[in-house]
Amino acid sequence: MCGMGVSVEEFMAIVLRLPEVSQHESAGYVGFKVRGKGFGYLWEETETVGLKATVEEQLALVAERPEVFEVQFTAGRFGWVVVRLAGIEADELAEMVTEAWSLSAPKRLIESTL
């Protein structure tokens, strides 16, 4: 695949590098939170993840690469995006995961980390 694609293990390493991330398993997926606020999900069986984004980012990603991204749902000012791990590079995914984390993390935690 010429460097394209991220494994479930690589995704987990990206997520768990961020401070104060907790994970919880549910039927069919793993959810990720920072201080009790959700920012991502992993569906290992389908090798997809759901990430919190702004609605504008959600729409731009889906319009640009519908083979990689799809709309999961919107909630208020946030638009959750489904990402197919096979279609994304690790650095782009790391940026998206960090952004999703920062949309949920308290300001002081973000400032002390990034």
Shape: globular
Largest sheet: 6 strands, antiparallel
DSSP strand count: 6
* β-strand amount: 25-35%
Order of helix and strand elements from N to C terminus: HEEEEHEEHH
Spans of at least 5 consecutive residues whose pLDDT stays below 50 are: none
User: Helix coverage percent of residues?
Assistant: 25-40%
Specify the number of helices. Answer: 4
Q: Spatial order of the strands in the main sheet?
A: 1-2-3-4-6-5
**Distance between termini?**
31 Å
Helix-and-strand structural type:
alpha+beta
Mean pLDDT: 94
Computed over alpha carbons, the radius of gyration is: 13 Å
Pfam families: YjbR
Protein name: MmcQ/YjbR family DNA-binding protein
InterPro entries: YjbR-like_sf (IPR038056), YjbR/MT2646/Rv2570-like (IPR058532)
How is the topology of this model organized?
Elements: H1 8-16, E1 21-26, E2 29-34, E3 37-43, E4 48-51, H2 55-64, E5 69-75, E6 78-84, H3 90-104, H4 107-113
Antiparallel strand pairs: 1-2, 2-3, 3-4, 4-6, 5-6
Helix pairs in contact: 1-3
Describe the structure.
This is MmcQ/YjbR family DNA-binding protein. There is one protein chain. By secondary structure, the protein is of the alpha+beta class. It is 36% helix and 32% strand. It has helices spanning 8-16, 55-64, 90-104, 107-113, and strands at 21-26, 29-34, 37-43, 48-51, 69-75, 78-84. A six-stranded antiparallel β-sheet has the order 1-2-3-4-6-5. The model has no long low-confidence stretch (mean pLDDT 94).
